[in-house]
TrEMBL record:
Keywords: ATP-binding, Ligase, Nucleotide-binding. The keyword Ligase applies. Residues 121-315 form the ATP-grasp domain. This is ATP-grasp domain-containing protein. It comes from the Bacteria. The keyword rRNA processing does not apply. InterPro entries: ATP-dep_AA_Ligase, ATP-grasp, ATP_grasp_subdomain_1.
Amino acid sequence: MTPTLTFLCISTYFKGNDFLKALKDAGNRVFLITAKKLENKPWVREAVDEFFYVEEGEDGAYNMNEIITGLAYVMRTRPIDRVVALDDFDVEKAAHIREYFRIPGMGQTTGRYFRDKLAMRTKALESGILVPGFSALFNDDQVNRFIEKYPGPWMIKPRSEASALGIQKLSTAEELWNTIHELGDKRHAYLVEQYKPGDVYHVDSISYNGIVIFSWNSKYLAPPFDVAHGGGIFRSVTVPLDSSEEHALQTLAVDLLKAFGLKHSASHTEVIRCHDDGKYYFLETSSRVGGAHLSEMVDAASGINLWKEWARMETAEAKGENYKLPPVRKEYSGIIISLARQEWPDLSVFNDPEIVWRMNEPHHVGLVVRSKSRDKVLELMDKYAAIVQKKYHASAPAPKKPAH
């Protein structure tokens, strides 16, 4: 009989309940490290054997020395077999723990490709994958050469924030240099990138034994940066199945994850198709399930719950057993999410039979629809966007730091 395995999960955010539940259902012991302030969130407590709460520092950081000391005490009596990061902000913590305790899985070098935007762009470029022009901000002459080579506008991006946080768009060299000077001693933690107008896509996938065994391709109807900074409405929809679009996205994601050395994980990769030349450029990737409830959208169209299958695959890999993906459905889905003026908006106005998921969070309105017809999904997305804009929509300035 296979001994019970212990999985240590880390999440800076309240997320991953499906993952925790699937780990428990597979017969594992489940530990969770999370922030003390998330203690009262509705975690699936029946699926977690032990919680470890961490007091965050002023900047939201965890004291890794304290975590290592605490885990060393735990491991005297309860060995840990695998460590899983459920959010972008936890990838480095998980890699640090694995390397310190020599637990199998992604180490810090590979982990950087999934957290550090400079490392991921450099590696993609080395691997022959198209990326928009970019430069580190270490050296003034290097930045000036970049400005000469790539005309503005440009984006300044933090190297290790998630989503569209901390990104600024600048049009002139003067604006760019002013922003760099404002960053002061923190400029090394940022990069500058050529702004390429285009359509932004996301590829949500699962890798097993270094091979992408599932990927699902979707297109944002408004780029995440525009939503975060322009107070827009977040929408995404499945790309046409078996299209040149789908094949191009699939090829880029497979080549990228192979080059980055991803062995066993879910991942979320963003790609832009440039309006000027029609080519697909890599933007960024991560070794986790996509945020903003994209997993619900992928599940609706494909029948694959990314959180659940990631947990099942991790369990099989840790036990040395074979993992098999369930059959994949081939339909279309779309998601729409917006901040709402009302604390608990009444969603009864949305009553189409295509609706398969409704968001249940204060001051938000969100829906996922499914259909065999992509045109139907797009029609509903447009219809709902007009209703949301008129009846519910509220916008807030993009946060400087992530909110939990």
